[in-house]
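Progress report, Aim 2. The chain analyzed during this reporting quarter is listed below.
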Amino acid sequence: MQPRISIITPSYNQGKFIRQTIESVLSQDYPNIEYIIVDALSTDETLPIVGEYKDRLTLIAERDSGQTDAINKGLRLATGDIVCWLNSDDYFLPGTLASVGDFFADNPDKLWLTGDCQIVDQAGRPIQQPVRHYKRLLRSLTPALYLGMTNAICQPSTFWRRSVHTQLGFLTESLHYTMDYDWWLRLQQLQPPAILPQPLTAFRIHADSKGGNQYGLQFDEDYQTFARYWAGTPIRWLHRLHNRAITSVYNLVK
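Predicted structure tokens for the chain:
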């Protein structure tokens, strides 16, 4: 029997993208989904757009203390066997939930899985293909590389059993950039992720996204998050060196 999948979308003033996000969820060829949008009282066209789909999703519209708080609100409301979050500027590819549902139905011992993702620009055009291929290579190797040296997990392409929240609690709300990395490291303490090779989602980078204009602050928080879980000096040195190399590349291409 295919599991029920709950998708959480934290939302604030992404009206230019959220329709594509919603359509990508509701058009999935999968019979058992729960879709929850948690909006922080957007002031653009977001809420009227979401309202067009009110009979097919659950909308929570109220002030929050940030993206992580919004995600946690949705996770606490979720009733699905499998959960994930999909940001309001990203989107699922066709067939994603069928692949995820089949995997968990066939592998009852697996707690979480992650797949590949396309990296796209504001218009949905593929970008940063070398970055995508590099992270895909790392995920084919050891967790010490794709979770220790760096975070090579695609956030929108990652799904887990809701039951793990009984053991692990919810996302760390003091984190603004690396709440996903922190969550992966906590999940890793229970079990390494299953890796799916196919792309499941599109991760969008644009002028207003955190990944597009706040990468310096993101890397600072990234190292602080990493250091809470990895004690060995060699892997700490490797992680810091990797962050410096990536930051240098970003500075060159910006």
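The radius of gyration is 17 Å. The CA atoms of residues 205 and 211 lie 6 Å apart. These observations will guide the mutagenesis work planned for the next reporting period.
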